[in-house]
């Protein structure tokens, strides 16, 4: 869980940083997209590195979801009779929503791939022009809304996920517990802020079709 | 004060339980929660009804025998307090109080609020000890233990095995209990030789007993009457990783 | 009224070896017969109880190779009442170099027991104390340590040396968990068959030997007979005869009482220890009493109003109208007089109508001076957790309002009579821990019960059981033997009878009433008249019990009221014996104070000429006069002196 979640986290960080290139303008962004596919060539054929990354990512997603499903099933089996009344004492919103949050994220990713990778769900859908596609999408309010909701879900998921991963990997202790908690929150907020800056820039017209 | 109690009644292991409502109108704020139930039971007996079965022994917060979920919280509303040490002055006149047993597949209900917690014993059997046969012990001062380690080991060792952590965990995990023992023994020099086999064996026993997995939600620590810290789980994970991925466990 | 007992032959031999006292245990171990390992595997020992005594014994016997069947009434062996011990455990390690030694611990214990214990036993206990600490540390018991990493100790119960090892306020818990873990290891190894939630209801004696027990599975209600080559009782003390005590709610006398009915002598039942610093009763609903550490008396000042019936709030009572009675009566020791003296003084002032709090049963333990002198922070650092506990239970803040305390029953020195080998008068029946009477005489020193339980379980019993079993093999026994059938039928018919009465009083109502009689007449101060009255009252109440008790439910399920009723029935019989014992002992000693036997200034007056013996009682039938067997005590090494704390 922690390892696959970690891989996905690293991807997200890279993805977020990549996305920020949108502020550098259409050429830079499209070029970056192109570079993703050509990196390593001519030493390796077109799209080798990207495909490899995709495989790792896909594997992570599958394993991650498998593990999550297993955990959920064990949890359900561990409490066959539910409480009639139940009150939370400490658990955070983030920790409680890991499973549903994860599902929302998964659904989002599917939509997102249809939108910007396969371009089927994109209002513009011009191959080779991710910049244009992105801007076209985010100009529509409900697309932006969908992305925002999903990103907030990602934020919560990571907020607890990162903290949990550090706990699971045994990196937390009494002294570090606070620090780990803060780190997890800050990382999640920064990441989501980074991602969200793009659609909001589009909506507010900071980034537009030029 | 006057109280309305909604209590889980279940005949036996296989019985189907339900919440039954009782009212009590002469509850003194000085009573402990269990004394309040004693009063209810005296009344039930005299009126020819079955008294409510609940576990208790020391009534001092140390034996770990008592425990019920009170208004949705294991051991009730007071932090770091067992059910037997909870007093009625924390409730108000006219309150309705829901009382349920620990709910966990690993702790089957025996009757009413009484559950079978022998799964905890099976976790200890798997390795929650230091092999030190009687009579073969070296002089106590032969191995000094740094005070911080001794104190931290003591802290973890104060777990009373009540099971509130399991009752509260959304995953039904017994990780805090398991981690408390692993941390206690793992911090002491005497505990080192069996450190890595202990963690693997105890976690296997934990999983086998039907507890859920831990996803670090932290509800357990919040209700733990002894305040066993979450970092014990981290300690457990660290040892578990060293044992498995780190290859410190022979198997 | 004629005397409610008769006299029998004295006990001639306690089996203690002769010779210099420091060689006796070594001699005994050397002369004890051994069982060879191959035979051990064929032998089974039943151990009833999983407290410090029973848990350590079961684990050690299993390590030695015996098969062990272990029983406790809780849901796990880890919950035995030993878990509640707070203060610490004594051992003559002399780590402080403050002049402690095995001999000094021996001396202090004999003296503390008011010269009513056996020198040989106490000496052995002091010797073994040293090994106990080694054993527990090896098991990972997290004793308090100093910065250098070595074990810390503190002084306790008025001892002049610092020999008490502790684990914050949870020493009993940590020691018990050590024994419990050793026990669980043996369970995993298949050497111990653990039967939690099983209650022993009778002893099976075949051909004069203890060969098994009758137990009830408390979950299913099933009654079964269990057999072994020897039976060990480690079922704890009987302080709950008083209903209100610091003991766990389930503590009972059933196991030992049933053995007593089968022929084991019961010794010194009247010796009860009353602890002076408990939280007072707050109302009729009270179900048990909570002990506050004795250390509070180091800084708290005990007082009551000068005038009887003064119901002002403590803060409104001016200094001149307060009576710091311990400081007044005992200027030398002041608030630090021993437990029995502090307890009795509190009772006296309350009897004069000067008590504090609801019902006038309490005295103030005031920290105002300590807070003024040391500062609140210093007081908090020392006693913070105790103050918190007090506040949790009473809802009062002891930093602002003086604490209220009152004495409560805490420990019972009496128990089944055993010889030097911990054998009762029934061959094959061993008794260890608080369940026996062996080592504390008329009064137990603080931090010595844990020491005795572990000494018995880890070290003494394993050696002496072997000596007994080496006489075997004994003939096979089975559930169809007449003795087993008779015992089992007896248990079943008693349960049937309890359920059949279907009267109109609850078990607790009887227990409370019995407790009140005992506390009134056989508590801190006893008189001839009161005890005779108590015996009559107990008999009447017992008769009423058997006609008016109401036990709901059936015997085929978890039935907590049935368990209670059975225990109370045994308490009735024990209560009577306690009163008889207290009545016959017309001296005052340790935990037994006879109003008729005091010095001019109200101190306990021992009568060594007539009472330097242990009183071992033989059962002759319910309500029949028991037979007294005396075991004379001789003092070669510590010479009896009268205590004085003025
Ligand atoms: C509040 C408190 C504080 C104390 N503090 C100290 C201290 O600081 N230092 C000290 O030295 N001593 C202290 N003591 C005394 C000490 O704790 C006890 O004397 C000692 O622990 C008794 O141990 P035990 O093994 O003999 O019996 P217990 O621990 O009482 O164990 C009895 C066992 O027998 C079982 N049992 C009983 N009856 C039956 C039955 N009928 N069938 C089956 N099983 C049965 C029970 O399940 C239990 O397992 C304290 C006592 C109290 C009450
Ligand atoms: C159906 C989809 C998903 C589900 C059900 C799901 C569920 C979970 C759960 C239950 C945890 C907690 C595990 C623990 O605390 O040990 C977790 C952790 C995590 N998840 Fe997800 N998740 C999903 C998708 C994703 C996606 C798409 C990402 C990344 C973008 C992601 C990133 C993480 C990270 C980084 C962690 C922390 C790892 C850890 O706690 O060990 N998850 N997930
Ligand atoms: C505002 C936020 C985001 C923007 C603007 C954005 C933009 C894009 C774009 C333009 C692509 C196509 C790249 C290409 O084909 O060259 C892409 C691919 C992808 N994005 Fe996003 N994305 C965002 C958020 C996310 C989030 C939150 C996730 C995961 C939870 C995610 C996961 C992916 C994945 C898995 C791919 C496919 C990568 C591949 O095919 O190799 N994206 N994104
Ligand atoms: S960890 Fe806390 S809640 Fe869990 S069993 Fe131990 S004391 Fe009870
Ligand atoms: S609440 Fe449960 S998920 Fe883990 S941190 Fe505690 S065991
Ligand atoms: S009854 Fe012992 S902890 Fe509550």
Question: What descriptive keywords fit this protein?
Answer:
heterotrimer, B: 251 residues, alpha+beta, Ubiquitin-like (UB roll), Fumarate Reductase Iron-sulfur Protein, Chain B, domain 2, 2 domains, five-stranded mixed sheet, two-stranded antiparallel ribbon, elongated, C: 646 residues, FAD/NAD(P)-binding domain, Flavocytochrome C3, Chain A, domain 1, Methane Monooxygenase Hydroxylase, Chain G, domain 1, five-stranded parallel sheet, 17 helices, binds flavin-adenine dinucleotide, binds protoporphyrin IX containing FE, binds iron/sulfur cluster, binds FE3-S4 cluster
The chain pair forming the largest interface, with residue counts per chain, is: B-C, 80 and 77 residues
Kindly provide the radius of gyration of chain A, computed on alpha-carbon positions and rounded to a whole number of angstroms.
Answer: 19 Å
Q: What small molecules are bound in this structure?
A: flavin-adenine dinucleotide, protoporphyrin IX containing FE, iron/sulfur cluster, FE3-S4 cluster, FE2/S2 (inorganic) cluster
Query: How would you name the oligomeric state of the polypeptide chains in this document?
Result: heterotrimer
SSE string of chain A, helices as H and strands as E: HHHHHHHH
Helix and strand pattern of chain B: EEHEEEEEHHHHHHH
Unreliable residue runs of chain B: none
Straight-line N-to-C gap of chain A:
43 Å
* CATH superfamily placement of the largest domain in chain B: Alpha-helical ferredoxin
- Give the overall average pLDDT of chain B: 96
Known CATH architecture of the largest domain in chain B: Orthogonal Bundle
Total strands of chain B? 7
User: Can you tell me the CATH class of the largest domain in chain B?
Assistant: Mainly Alpha
SSE map:
The complex is a heterotrimer of chains A (210), B (251) and C (646).
Chain A lengths: L1 H19 L5 H13 L9 H31 L14 H4 L1 H20 L12 H9 L2 H28 L5 H30 L7
Chain B lengths: L2 E7 L8 E7 L8 H14 L22 E2 L2 E2 L21 E5 L8 E3 L2 E2 L2 H8 L21 H11 L6 H5 L6 H12 L8 H14 L10 H5 L7 H14 L7
Helix pairs in contact in B: 2-6, 3-5, 5-6, 5-8, 6-8
Chain C lengths: L5 E2 L16 H8 L5 H4 L3 E5 L3 H13 L2 E5 L17 E2 L11 H11 L6 H20 L14 E2 L9 E2 L5 H18 L3 E4 L2 E9 L2 E9 L5 E5 L2 E4 L20 H8 L4 E2 L4 E7 L22 E5 L16 E2 L1 H5 L9 H13 L11 E4 L1 H7 L1 H19 L8 E10 L2 E2 L12 E3 L17 H21 L12 H20 L5 H16 L5 H21 L11 H25 L23 H4 L1 E6 L8 E6 L14
Parallel strand pairs in C: 1-21, 2-3, 2-11, 3-7, 11-19
Antiparallel strand pairs in C: 4-6, 5-6, 8-9, 9-10, 12-18, 12-20, 13-17, 14-15, 14-16, 16-17, 20-21
Helix pairs in contact in C: 3-6, 3-12, 4-5, 5-12, 10-11, 14-15, 14-16, 15-16
The complex binds flavin-adenine dinucleotide (FAD), protoporphyrin IX containing FE (2 copies), iron/sulfur cluster, FE3-S4 cluster and FE2/S2 (inorganic) cluster.
